[in-house]
Design a protein that fits this description.
The protein is an alpha/beta fold. The protein is built from 14 helices and 19 strands. It has an eight-stranded mixed β-sheet.
Length: 402
């Protein structure tokens, strides 16, 4: 490949994890080649939440202005009972988030974030992007690693000092490292985006992230693109009919979702009726004992530790991984193995803590009967500042540089 060097960082995948890693490595003086199997960057997915632990790192990469042009800065996260709409708890964001955690809490369309990252990567002289390159496997050789790919039916290879697997939930690099396959958790994420003018007056509080809590499921709603659109995601305890494994999401018959929402009150039924179509993703996770690095191959983001979205930290953990990995490689010099070991040592405990928080959220948000009543009373008794303090360990996180 023209301009290629065996000292380059190779990255498989041009999603949020891969593009953030490319920028983080490039800012530390590395030359980077990113290989994406799709023929071009396309709009995919729906909304996502970027908490201060993630926006802080994106700001450091010089993306702050571009992010804020496309994102919404919500003023609070609000928990409500789905049946009645009654507020259970409110965590202040906006200026309060900036003051408390030193960075903004933002929500935006996943495609908009990928567009910002992609434009920055295209513009960086140390980064080269290759599309239509489908990773098939990897081979180790002394002092280097080879990425084997298929391009238009032809076999090609690239050599570098490190191969980063940012190839998502169904990571081929993880499979080649004898990593564990994804494990279904028995829940489905139903996603849709509806026009803001399709909402009934007063249906949703403007400028906030709202989580509607119900018996065994929940629905989250928040504004996108200046409030012109609203992102809805419902997590239900079943497997979506029509969803396809190996794809980010697929169109699915929402009959089962509508049946679930039928008992949740008129507000959620109205939101469901405002949606033209839903996509569905059977939730999966990667088990915790999967190796994150072998030789000169390393995993980040969902490829390493895909988790359920109950803590809204999928993008955040990928961004953190990317920046910590680049920092460890810069500090490690030629000792790649030591750098990768330090990366994994620093990241595993945090990722596992976030995973546990997600499981806790699922239990609490999907509670019913006396447990739900106790939850509501406990949350109502706590001041907003105390609720925000519960997130200091998560949103206030800053990486160790070495």
């Amino acid at each position: 490949m023209s301009g290629a060097s065996s000292s380059d960082i190779l990255i498989a995948g041009a999603g949020i994890a891969g593009l953030t890693a490319a920028l983080a490595f490039a800012e530390r003086g590395f030359c980077v080649r990113v290989f994406e199997r799709a023929p071009l960057l396309v709009e995919v997915g729906a909304g996502l939440q970027l908490s201060p632990n993630a926006t802080r790192l994106l700001d450091r990469l010089g993306l702050g202005e571009a992010l804020r042009e496309r994102a919404v800065r919500p003023q609070a996260v609000v928990l409500r009972r789905a049946e009645t709409g009654r507020q259970v708890a409110r965590v202040p964001l906006g200026e309060a988030a900036l003051k408390r955690w030193g960075a903004d809490y933002l929500v935006m369309h996943r495609a908009d974030l990928q567009s910002v990252l992609g434009a920055a990567a295209h513009a960086h002289p140390a980064i080269r992007l290759y599309f239509g390159h489908d990773l098939c496997g990897a081979r180790e050789r002394p002092g280097a690693v080879m990425a084997d790919m298929e391009v238009d039916g032809r076999a090609v290879s690239a050599e570098g000092r490190l191969l980063v697997g940012a190839d998502g939930v169904w990571s081929r690099l993880r499979a080649g490292m004898d990593g564990a396959p994804c494990r279904a958790v028995g829940h489905t994420a139903w996603r849709t985006i509806i026009p803001g003018d399709a909402l009934a007056a007063g249906a949703l509080e403007p400028g906030v992230v709202t989580a509607f809590l119900a018996k065994r499921f929940h629905l989250v709603a928040y504004p996108l693109r200046g409030g012109r659109e609203w992102n809805l995601v419902a997590i239900t305890p079943d497997r979506a009919v029509g969803a396809v494994e190996g794809e980010w999401a697929s169109a699915a018959d929402p009959t089962r979702l509508r049946e679930t929402l039928a008992d949740a009150g008129p507000l959620l039924r109205g939101l469901a009726d405002a949606a033209r179509e839903w996509t569905a993703w059977p939730l999966v996770e990667v088990v915790g004992d999967t190796p994150w690095h072998v030789g000169r191959q390393v995993l980040i983001g969902d490829a390493a530790h895909a988790m359920t979205p109950h803590a809204a930290q999928g993008a955040g953990m990928a961004i953190e991984d990317a920046c910590v990995l680049a920092a460890q490689m810069a500090a490690g010099g030629e000792d790649v193995e030591r750098a990768l070991a330090r990366y994994e040592t620093r990241r595993r405990p945090r990722v596992e803590r976030v995973r546990r928080r997600g499981r806790f959220n699922r239990f609490v948000w999907h509670a019913w009967g006396p447990i739900a009543l106790g939850r509501d009373l406990a949350l109502a008794a706590r001041p907003q500042g105390a609720l925000a303090a519960d997130f200091d360990w998560l949103y206030g996180w800053r990486p160790e540089e070495t």
